[in-house]
């Protein structure tokens, strides 16, 4: 199966089958039937794409219910350290973080269910990231956690003193201070 459990309920790594030859490669980056066969069913309604340079750190972001989003994240160019934090009250991994390196070369994708904060840091010269969402963006339900919260101890793969972070992300609260409405 192309799916690997992470130890966090519902947080899954997807590794599509890649067919390569002397011309290059081909793979299905997403096929609903492949996910359905594994018991994974989402109706993705929005695709987002971002290009960033080395040292850019985005996150950690989430949207409150009823606007929360499940995301399927992949890298089209370059490499990132992708990080999530489980915010689902009652989850065995509540308040814990998980990281994975996603690259254009390894073609791994991370399926992040609703109830997680998400972010990433660019560890290559540039990176182009694309992710599918099962709900539309809703500005009024935005939330987030500060990327350098010592309680999370996330290794972003870059020197955080030189990270390129938006003004909005620099003033996010620590995990212990966030407001959310996620239940496992």
Summarize the structure in words.
With 184 residues, this protein is mainly beta. The protein has helices spanning 32-37, 167-170; strands at residues 3-5, 12-14, 19-21, 24-26, 46-53, 57-63, 71-77, 79-86, 97-103, 109-112, 116-122, 126-133, 142-144. Strands 1-2-10-7-12-5 form a 6-stranded antiparallel β-sheet, with no helix packed on it. Strand 3 (19-21) and strand 4 form a beta hairpin. The longest helix is centred in the first third of the chain and has 6 residues, at 32-37. The mean pLDDT is 97.
Kindly summarize this structure in a few lines:
By secondary structure, the chain is mainly β.
SSE layout and pairing:
Elements: E1 3-5, E2 12-14, E3 19-21, E4 24-26, H1 32-37, E5 46-53, E6 57-63, E7 71-77, E8 79-86, E9 97-103, E10 109-112, E11 116-122, E12 126-133, E13 142-144, H2 167-170
Antiparallel strand pairs: 1-2, 2-10, 3-4, 5-12, 6-11, 6-13, 7-10, 7-12, 8-9, 8-11
From the structure above, extract its key features:
184 residues; mainly beta; 5% helix
Order of helices and strands: EEEEHEEEEEEEEEH
Mean pLDDT: 97
Q: Structural class, judged by helices and strands?
A: mainly beta
- Percentage of residues assigned to helices: under 10%
Strand content: 35-45%
What is the subunit arrangement here? single chain
Regions with little confidence, pLDDT below 50 for 5+ residues: none
Distance between the termini: 26 Å
Give a quick account of the main beta sheet: strands, pairing sense, barrel closure.
6 strands, antiparallel
Count of helical segments? 2
Sequence of strands across the biggest β-sheet? 1-2-10-7-12-5
Instruction: Evaluate the radius of gyration.
Output: 16 Å
- Form type: globular
């Amino acid at each position: 199966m192309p799916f690997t459990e992470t130890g966090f309920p519902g947080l899954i790594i997807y590794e599509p089958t890649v067919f390569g030859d002397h011309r290059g490669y081909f793979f299905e980056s997403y096929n609903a039937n492949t996910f359905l066969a594994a018991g994974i069913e989402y109706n993705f309604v929005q695709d987002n794409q971002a290009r960033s340079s080395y040292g850019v750190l985005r996150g950690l972001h989430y949207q409150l219910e009823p606007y929360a989003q499940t995301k399927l994240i992949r890298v089209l160019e370059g490499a990132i350290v992708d990080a999530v934090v489980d915010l689902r009250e009652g989850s065995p991994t509540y308040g814990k973080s998980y990281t994975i390196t996603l690259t254009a070369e390894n073609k791994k994708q991370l399926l992040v269910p609703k109830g997680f904060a998400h972010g990433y840091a660019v560890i290559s010269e540039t990176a182009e990231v694309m992710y599918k969402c099962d709900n539309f963006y809703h500005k009024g339900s935005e939330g987030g956690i500060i990327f350098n919260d010592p309680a999370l101890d996330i290794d972003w793969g870059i020197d955080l003193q030189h990270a390129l972070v938006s003004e909005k992300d620099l003033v996010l609260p620590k995990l212990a201070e966030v407001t959310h409405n996620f239940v496992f």
